[in-house]
Amino acid sequence: MEQNNNTNTVNLDSIDLHLLQALQTDASLSNQALAERVHVSPPTCLRRVKRLHEAGLIERQIALLSPDKLAAVLGHGLTAIVEITLDKQTEEQQQYFELRVVADSAVQQCYRTSPGPDFVLLVQVADMPAYLALAQRLFTANANVRNVKAFFSLKRAKFMPSVLLGMDKNY
């Protein structure tokens, strides 16, 4: 991996890509196991992963929880995919809305989209009353929201929070 000081761009080689792929599949791997997986020495592996972090390519490492197993303890909760159309779509209005929704802990993901709605949100709340409170807090209290369309998840068939790295030619 090379970093060009003039443009802040990072050049990735196949080892870097393999490291990123392995880490986004299982970030709990020890440095030794990661080095073995990508066929480099442990010191090389450690140095490269550190540079990937420093370059900002690895934002953070988290644990993915099992909602189905936690449901027995916490309840199932409610997942909604919400389409939002703003009344005024100026850059300033879009930034204002985006800042409001991303600050709310119930909003798990936020995307600006085109064409169609201005935003698509993935929200997770405890139940329907909690969704109503969220809708009132984020959508109806803001006069710039023209349309809200919510879809409630019945079952999650796949969840793969990964970035395509170009190593799999099926994308």
From TrEMBL:
<dbReference type="GO" id="GO:0043565">
    <property type="term" value="F:sequence-specific DNA binding"/>
</dbReference>
<dbReference type="InterPro" id="IPR019887">
    <property type="entry name" value="Tscrpt_reg_AsnC/Lrp_C"/>
</dbReference>
<dbReference type="GO" id="GO:0006355">
    <property type="term" value="P:regulation of DNA-templated transcription"/>
</dbReference>
<dbReference type="Pfam" id="PF01037">
    <property type="entry name" value="AsnC_trans_reg"/>
</dbReference>
<dbReference type="Pfam" id="PF13404">
    <property type="entry name" value="HTH_AsnC-type"/>
</dbReference>
<feature type="domain" description="HTH asnC-type">
    <location>
        <begin position="12"/>
        <end position="79"/>
    </location>
</feature>
<keyword id="KW-0238">DNA-binding</keyword>
<dbReference type="InterPro" id="IPR011991">
    <property type="entry name" value="ArsR-like_HTH"/>
</dbReference>
<dbReference type="InterPro" id="IPR019888">
    <property type="entry name" value="Tscrpt_reg_AsnC-like"/>
</dbReference>
<keyword id="KW-0804">Transcription</keyword>
<dbReference type="InterPro" id="IPR011008">
    <property type="entry name" value="Dimeric_a/b-barrel"/>
</dbReference>
<dbReference type="GO" id="GO:0043200">
    <property type="term" value="P:response to amino acid"/>
</dbReference>
<dbReference type="GO" id="GO:0005829">
    <property type="term" value="C:cytosol"/>
</dbReference>
<dbReference type="InterPro" id="IPR036388">
    <property type="entry name" value="WH-like_DNA-bd_sf"/>
</dbReference>
<dbReference type="InterPro" id="IPR036390">
    <property type="entry name" value="WH_DNA-bd_sf"/>
</dbReference>
<dbReference type="InterPro" id="IPR000485">
    <property type="entry name" value="AsnC-type_HTH_dom"/>
</dbReference>
<protein>
    <submittedName>
        <fullName>DNA-binding transcriptional activator DecR</fullName>
    </submittedName>
</protein>
<keyword id="KW-0805">Transcription regulation</keyword>
